[in-house]
Amino acid sequence: MTHKAPKDLRSARWFAPDDLRSFGHRSRMMQLGYSEEDFRDKPVIGVLNTWSELNTCHSHFKERVQDVKRGVFQAGGFPVEMPSLSVDESFTKPTSMLYRNMLAMETEEMIRSHPLDGVVLMGGCDKTTPGLVMGAISAGVPMVYLPAGPMLRGNYAGKILGSGSDAWKYWDERRAGNISDDEWLGIQGGIARSAGTCMTMGTASTMTAIADAMGLTLPGASSIPAVDAGHQRMGADCGRRIVEMVWEDLTPDRIITDAACRNAAVVAMATGCSTNAVVHLIAMARRAGVELSLDDLDALGRVTPLIANVRPSGRDYLMEDFFYAGGLRALMKQIEDRLDLTALTITGKTLGENLEGAVVYNDDVIRPLSNPVYEEGSLAVLRGNLCPDGAVIKPAACDPKFHFHEGPALVFDSYPEMKAAIDDETLEVTPDHVLVLRNAGPQGGPGFPEWGMLPIPKALIKQGHRDMLRISDARMSGTSYGACVLHVAPESYVGGPLALLKTGDIVRLDLANRRLDMLVEEVELEARRAAWQAPVPRFERGYGYLFQRHVTQADKGCDFDFLQSDFGRTAGEPDIY
Ligand code: FES
Q1: What is the CATH number of the domain that holds 487?
Q2: Which of 86, 184, 285, 453 lies deepest, with the highest CB count within 10 Å?
Q3: Measuring from atom 2 of ligand 1, which residue has the nearest CA?
Q4: In what residue span(s) does the Dihydroxy-acid/6-phosphogluconate dehydratase N-terminal domain sit (predicted)?
């Protein structure tokens, strides 16, 4: 195994030379009260902390960073905490997805421009995992991912509450007049009871599971609840391990390989992953130079049973139960014959070695392959004249009667238009209608918002309907459910075929054949295409201006084109003068 010499540390370029610049670097560290022996010839570890008071999922990170630093010191390293863009899911408008790439850029440049030998990435709330990982892949120094961990189960009046999923469910009951104000307030107070990320298998739990399966976390770290004492111990372990990784020169390119990305995709399918996994996993893989396509994911989804009985795709349990049932290591053990166990991980061991001894303690939560929640995986990829570059649906999370459906489209051009109409009880809509929202994609949203679970029209809610076919070029929250076709590509805002659909056109979803089509003659579509006019750009300045010029479509991961691994020359290390 490689063992770096202190003179070969990246940070030595800042701290070792006997020149004026390095004098400045050393004197400024001493300004913090450190002596030279505290930081000279030691791995300097950046602890990238996405804490913010508006990122309620990361409210424990102020304490947890101390656990990481404790571990780094114990192992003979020197930790420096660095704030990173927090990208909270709850408050960021128009959508946190607009800023995932900003976090990725910030992460890459913060690492590249500072005297860091390795990093611990502290994230968890949806976009923070892909954003941090994408940036760190491009920066190329050893990294450990520290997942925030899920919050405790929600609880109100003896009922278990799941993040997001139960908010949608009880909101519909409130719209139907079945829930009192007092009950609604009780649910509001009980649905988020502790620090940590959403405790359904939403985007946060999906993405941290993906990081775990890729070998970027300590084994099983993604399942530990945020407030469990084991989470603190895991934090210190991350600190100790990253110091060893620096000496071993264990860089991300050795870990994020084709095998690691495929393992992550298989695990995502088996967990009942968020549809957002598709976009982020493709983006992370492309940063590492791994080609992972929508069709690859569909093929893996067809042969991977969903075995995590965790809501919203599963029926009964939440992430806290998943942890007690053995967590992600136990789930991976169940499907180990479908994984590449030779994949290297941050432990310096293979995935197979990391899974040794993993046990399922509750086989109703983590099901055996002989008794899956759903025979196929979580996601299906559709093609057709509405989505030539793909669209996704979560078959396990919708009423099976919609797996084949034909109905007339009811088209909305914007979210405000849809919102105003949907509660109008005179809206002409039947349960067979197909609700369509367009101009909600990466550029149209802007930023690819989570609007894809369109509300059921109030008139239908009152008749007892709780699901109908919905189509958009938006995403939806990983905690959402229903017959929602998402990520239609190319998006309507750039002239994708969804822009040509009219209210009353018949739409057909044929899940078995993975098709989504509008039953409109090609000659008519050609006339509509000729008449289509490009909308005005959303932004004329600032970050949005950069975003709209460079963001790729959903099937390519929505990264900026100039940040992908195959774009241009790698700048390499910064010059130091
Ligand atoms: Fe942070 Fe759901 S809002 S993970």
Answers
A1: 3.50.30.80
A2: 285
A3: 198
A4: 42-354
